[in-house]
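Morning run. Coffee first, then this:
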Amino acid sequence: MTRTHSLAAVGGLATALTWGGMFTIAKTAFPHLGPFQLTAARFILATIVFMVILALKEGPRALIPGRRAGSLWLVGTIGFAGFNMLMYAGLAYSAPQTISLVMATLPMVTLFIMWARTRKRPAGLVFLFSAIALVGVTLVLGNGNPAAVLHGSLGLGVPLTFAGVIAWVIYTTSRGSFCELSLLRFTTHTCLLGTGSILVLTTLMTWNEPPISGGDVGAVLWQIVYMALPATVLAVLTWNYAVATLGASNGVLFINLVPITAFTIEAIRGHQPTGGEIAGVALTLAALLAVNLVTRRQAKATPRIEVAQARSDAPREYKASAS
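And here it is:
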């Protein structure tokens, strides 16, 4: 493994660990700030930091989005507004460890999004292991009884978070469409423009609620700082670097560590995982790892000429993630 790939792996690990702790920390802030206000506060601070870093590294002119501002706004809205607002809304209905497990389906979702983009169908075993992973998720949600999910125990948290996962995969796999932008500039512009959408959506969704007081913000200031700095500035930069260096299907594999981190934190805080939860987590992670192994094996078995042809026919974002 080269030094570049080693740094990318460390970056993916850093993202997984910081995101694993984010769910519990965000949940503790909800008595003072709702999910949408918390999202807005987080990204206002994160955007300011991104802009300062970009201006110092590439100069003030780099802060101007340029001719592709519309495309960057769309990608940033899908990724930052879509993913985070849906995830925090889901967190209001479900436990942190449950939301983190839904996040672990991100590698599987990536495969299917890439299928839609490249028209290259995954191997048959991918569908089998994906189904097993979903059974594992239902084991956790049903506390060992997957059938319980069908009787109304699913709630709104899981589907909201899963929709957010799809939004983040779309954002992640869109990076290659902006090859003319540095990683830092792409991240900063999408975060800045996506935060604009977050502020508009938050205003529309909370217009009839009491205004936020300075005391509310002060009561959860450390949670906001954690989510804005380690869980956004650090995590998003390291995430984009890992995906750009290792490829989408390999980079997203680190997300499997998110539920392990979240379950560990909740156990330390006093939550005793049941046998059904442990079995579900183990089954889900094993199935998702199997999906990745099958994908790697299929890639190695593909003749070089066929790979070259697939890349030449693929959209630009796939070419970047596959290289």
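Confidence is low (pLDDT under 50) at residues 303-323. Good start to the day.
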